[in-house]
Amino acid sequence: MGQLSEPELMIETHQLRRTFGQCQAVADLSFSVRRGEIFGLLGPNGAGKTTTIRLLSGQIIPDSGWARVAGCDVTRDRLRFKQRIGVVFEEQNLYERLSARTNLRFSCWLYGLPEKRIDEVLTLVDLRDRASEPVGKFSQGLKQRLLIARALLHRPAVLFLDEPGRGLDPISAHTVRQVVQRLSEEGMTILLTTHLMEEADQLCQRVAFIVNGRLVANDSPRHLKLRHGKRLLQVTLEEPDGQSQRLHDVILKLDDAQDQQQLACWLSEGRVRALHTKEASLEEVFFQLAGVALS
Ligand SMILES: Nc1ncnc2c1ncn2[C@@H]1O[C@H](COP(=O)(O)OP(=O)(O)OP(=O)(O)O)[C@@H](O)[C@H]1O
Ligand SMILES: [Mg+2]
């Protein structure tokens, strides 16, 4: 997987553009992904996420701009580059009547890959125990893991996952996230798309928000939340209530002069029982940035 000779930037795009008729699906997209990074592409329906993966995996060609993946130009070094990437799309098919292992054996046969790799990829996605069961009996989460296993057979350096958590219950989604995490720890570079802000927040070292085909932000979830989220403080106050003490919470804005004065006053009165800074969620930041981009 992660070889020392690999480039530091495993994905680079420069002003990538793709239109379908009148629809500009991807416009002037420029970003890069470092080796071993989990990079999340977030955006509303129709934002251009799947189109970006299709461009970066060589399934469609850009109208203009360029992209390099694992050191290869995606339009020129097609054969070499296809050997370096794995792709998992939602609508991909598995043979439902065949077992997980036979599905993988079939792919090995199709692409001339050694079958000894099958046990390794089944282990990577935690599917060894279920390998002999027909795929038709699999839940959505198990199928997703098998699709990932299939995409790993040829030891790609970069893995593209289109909506890996879509349609999964929280436990299955968590298992898929663990698999992605493990692959990244082994040096694989992963670009995934998602609607699930929580998933992106937990999993991705960096996320990019895409709206109408354009990037509106590209940073670590932490930086995005600190930069764009409102700085709030949750103050737990003690209210005298007859004999007993009643507690209640008030939210103050850290940057507001009046709120600062109010806090100083409560502190001097000794009424403050607890203080918590409240970080904005990635979802709030997304709504803010996407809203600005859409207006
Ligand atoms: N083959 C195509 N022909 C025509 N228009 C297309 C084609 N593929 C994508 N589009 C259009 O390009 C835009 C971006 O689509 P894309 O599938 O990349 O969005 P997305 O962000 O993946 O959305 P979703 O969250 O719904 O999966 C949409 O307006 C879509 O209708
Ligand atoms: Mg899509």
Task: Walk me through what this model shows.
The chain has 295 residues and is α/β, with parallel strands linked by helices. It has 2 domains: 9-220, Rossmann fold (3-Layer(aba) Sandwich), CATH 3.40.50; 230-278. 35% of the residues lie in helices and 31% in strands. It has a 6-stranded mixed β-sheet, sandwiched between helices. The protein has a 4-stranded antiparallel β-sheet with strand order 2-1-4-5. Strands 12-11-13 form a 3-stranded antiparallel β-sheet. A hairpin with a 2-residue loop joins strand 9 (206-211) and strand 10 (214-219). Helix 4 (117-124) packs across helix 5 (140-152). The two termini are 43 Å apart. The mean pLDDT is 90. It binds adenosine-5'-triphosphate (ATP) and magnesium ion.
Quickly list its features.
alpha/beta, 6-stranded mixed β-sheet, binds adenosine-5'-triphosphate, 10 helices, single chain, binds magnesium ion, 4-stranded antiparallel β-sheet, 2 domains, 295 residues, Rossmann fold, 13 strands, 35% helix
Concise overview:
The protein has 295 residues and is of the alpha/beta class.
- Helix/sheet category: alpha/beta
Gyration radius, rounded: 24 Å
- Tell me the helix content: 25-40%
Tally of separate helices: 10
| Series of secondary-structure elements, N-terminal to C-terminal | EEEHEEHEHHHEHEHEEHEEHEH
Could you state the CATH homologous superfamily of the largest domain?
Answer: P-loop containing nucleotide triphosphate hydrolases
The CATH class of the largest domain is: Alpha Beta
Low-confidence stretches: none
State mean pLDDT (0 to 100 scale).
Answer: 90
Number of strands: 13
